[in-house]
Write a structure and sequence with these properties.
heterotrimer, A alpha+beta (400), B alpha/beta (146), C alpha/beta (140), B: 146 residues, alpha/beta, Beta Polymerase, domain 2, 5-stranded mixed beta sheet, two-stranded parallel ribbon, 22% helix, C: 140 residues, Rossmann fold, 39% helix, 15% strand, binds iron/sulfur cluster
Chain lengths: 400, 146, 140
């Protein structure tokens, strides 16, 4: 069998990590994988050095559209760590609420896209439909569907009014029922189980080697969560638990994400109740950032966001290092994809949730010797969807 | 902070300075020759998770910080290494930590730091930069001349 | 713009291809959002296609990084003509917050000709639909 290189990409978007993967295949099996990045590299770390401390929050919000509040929280944590600032209690709860709402919409987005990759467009449409009410809450509370501009050094920019709290509660109650339905439908589905169980397994050792974080690590039984390990915002003031699974396959990742949604709702509900009682400021005034260095972490939907800032006492950061969670999660493909079939690679790649927005990427398959085109993006997707259909048939489902 | 005591105990004078920013954030300064030993100890024996590394150009020298997280205690240990700016090179830690592969390539590209014994130290983000243009160096202009 | 048979036929059902060139992901998600039940652009006969060779309209988001510039041009060449380009988001229209970055080759209209600009960061799905309707009017 000739070795074939299957390039996937390059169109994909996230901060430094748009992806271009070259899969080296022997027949159907993937034998090696290579990653190239930089198509979306926008030089944010350098840009950040030319902006005022306060302006940076707006810049880093635009690192990634899905985690558009995780990076600002991590950055604010870093600056507050540097300047030893304690934020008011009300701000803490608001931070948690916005952060968890974002986690909800991000996880739903992932479930939808994963469904799409498997040829289950019903799941795609459902999940995205249920995601809309969350964006409505966001629009009501922050003024924008995405890019909320809520975080600020020393607190938050906008308050959540008492009248809004009741509306949010109502929307969340409705959402909970729908989420339960969706979770049941996804986790009990025999086809999805056949397609996802035992696929793309990551062991604990892999997680340690690559330093993977977030749901990817938790699905492999590594019990880490920055919200608990390094408490900030209101995460140590409310009741919730960290979800872990032991198997490390794509199915466990789906389980972890879906169950985390319920934990998020729990956190939001408790925070909303407290928020009604707590009076006071939502931010303290920060006039001056002393020189020094600070580290801030936040558990984004995809894992730990890590920000390192250094100040020399002027109005701008001297260095701002940003490590997004996908940066360490993506290289785990090297461990999880090798030995799998091409049809499964799509879902393994999606399983890590590398800020997947480009469902239609420019994918082309070349024969390594002749550089002749074999498949393109559509065919790869078809391959994946056909496999689902085959399994459906084996399980005795009728084709519609 | 028993853990830091452990590190100090093991390496003694090799740890040039310890700085506690607060009880969860510790900065240790070491020599670049001792890097591999210390990383090995922190990564394997203390079972820390490698977060990332960040290079900084101080104009008079270069500085690399290796960030490790001890998840069960919520502590972040940052190893600080200074290297020469005119000939920036340091031993790669990829033989110990696989996850450092890409970040080292990135630092090589954006700051021009050479990592010795790195498997496949080639450009990672951009291939269109002119030779010798390192955007994250402090004296570099914001943009490459085209 | 001359009205020939091809353009007229194209107007009935636009096939759009989505091209992200160094964006923050958000514009891209909002484009996908247009497909889902709440907004559902398919009722206007618009379909998101997987290959640029089937597309009538290129939806471009992002600043156009140096590494991408060549590829954007290539994709534009591959698009069957007559075809239109829509720049979505502040990034694609002007460069937005990333304008001073060292990786910036755009904005998009420096790389390929753009027919319609939809500003906003990100533009709401309603704004995108309105933009496409404007494009349809322009074709007329
Ligand atoms: S315009 Fe705004 S939302 Fe759109 S890609 Fe640019 S930064 Fe992101």
């Amino acid at each position: 069998m000739k070795k074939v290189i299957v390039p996937i990409g390059p169109y994909h978007s996230l901060f430094e990590e748009p992806e271009y993967f070259a899969l080296y295949c022997d027949g159907e099996r993937v034998v090696d994988i290579e990653w190239m990045a930089g198509y979306n590299h926008r030089g944010i770390e350098k840009l950040s050095e030319s902006k005022h401390w306060d302006q940076v929050t707006f810049l880093i919000e635009r690192i990634c559209g899905i985690c558009s509040t995780s990076h600002p929280i991590a950055y604010c944590n870093a600056v507050e760590d540097l300047a030893k600032i304690e934020i008011p209690e009300r701000a803490k709860y608001i931070r948690s609420i916005v952060g968890e709402l974002e986690r909800l919409h991000s996880h739903l987005l992932w479930v939808g896209l994963a469904g799409h990759f498997l040829g289950y467009n019903t799941v795609f449409m459902w999940a995205w439909k249920y995601r809309e009410p969350i964006l409505d809450i966001m629009e009501m509370v922050t003024g924008n569907r995405n890019h909320y501009a809520m975080m600020k050094i020393g607190g938050v920019r906008r308050d959540i009014e008492n009248e809004d709290i009741d509306i949010i509660k109502k929307i969340l109650d409705e959402l909970k029922g729908k989420l339960e339905m969706l979770t049941g439908a996804v986790l009990d589905d025999p086809v999805l189980a056949a397609r996802l169980k035992g696929v793309g397994v990551l062991t604990k050792q892999d997680i340690k080697d690559y330093g993977a974080v977030g749901p990817v690590a938790r699905a492999s039984g590594v019990d880490i969560d920055v919200r608990r390990d390094n408490p900030h915002a209101a995460y140590n003031l409310v009741e919730w638990k960290v979800i872990t699974c032991q198997d490390g396959d794509v199915f466990s990742k789906a389980v972890v994400r879906l169950l985390e949604c319920f934990e998020s709702i729990k956190i939001i509900e408790q925070s909303l109740v407290r928020l009604k009682k707590i009076k006071g400021d939502i931010a303290i005034e920060v006039r001056y950032i002393p020189s020094g260095e600070g580290i801030g972490r936040y558990e984004a939907p995809r894992g730990e966001c890590y920000h390192y800032v250094r100040s020399d006492g002027t109005s701008r950061p001297v260095r701002h290092k940003i490590r997004a969670p996908s940066y360490v999660n993506i290289p785990t493909f090297k461990a999880s994809c090798i030995g799998e079939t091409i049809a499964d690679v799509t879902i393994i790649l999606a399983g890590i949730d590398p800020c997947y927005c480009c469902t239609e990427r420019a994918i082309t398959v070349y024969d390594a010797d002749t550089r002749k085109k074999l498949f393109d993006g559509k065919d790869l997707m078809k391959l994946s969807q056909e496999k689902t259909r085959k399994i459906k048939k084996q399980l005795g489902f009728k084709e519609k | 902070m028993e853990i830091i005591e452990q590190v100090k105990e093991k390496f003694k004078s090799k740890i040039k300075s310890v700085f506690f920013h607060n009880e969860k954030r510790v900065y240790l300064e070491i020599d670049k020759e001792d890097l591999i030993d210390v990383v090995k100890f922190i990564f394997h024996d203390l079972d820390a998770r490698f977060i990332t590394a960040s290079g900084i150009d101080n104009l008079k020298d270069m500085e690399i910080l290796y960030h490790f997280s001890l998840d069960s205690d919520g502590i972040v240990i940052s190893l600080r290494v200074f290297i020469d700016r005119d000939n920036p090179c340091i031993e790669s830690i990829t033989s110990i930590v696989k996850g450092a592969l890409n970040i080292e390539r990135e630092m090589y590209e954006l700051l021009g730091i050479k990592f010795l014994n790195h498997p496949g130290l080639k450009r990672f983000l951009t291939d269109e930069f002119p030779e010798g243009f390192y955007p994250l160096r402090k004296d570099s202009p914001g943009r490459a001349e085209q | 713009m001359a009205i020939d048979l091809k353009t007229k036929a194209l107007k009935k059902s636009l096939f759009v291809f989505h091209l992200s060139t160094g964006s923050c992901n958000n514009c891209d998600i909002e484009i996908l959002d247009c497909l889902t039940p709440r907004f559902d652009i398919e009722r206007f006969g618009m379909v998101l296609v997987g290959s640029v060779k089937h597309a009538d309209v290129l939806l471009v988001t992002g600043i156009g990084t140096i590494k991408n510039a060549e590829r954007i041009k290539k994709l534009y060449e591959q698009m069957p003509k007559p075809g239109f380009v829509v720049a979505i988001g502040a990034c694609a229209c002007t460069g937005g917050i990333f304008k001073e970055g060292y990786q910036m080759a755009g904005p998009i209209d420096k790389i390929i000709p753009v027919d319609v600009y939809i500003p906003g960061c990100p533009p709401k799905p309603e704004a995108m639909i309105a933009g496409i309707v404007k494009l349809l009017e322009k074709i007329k």
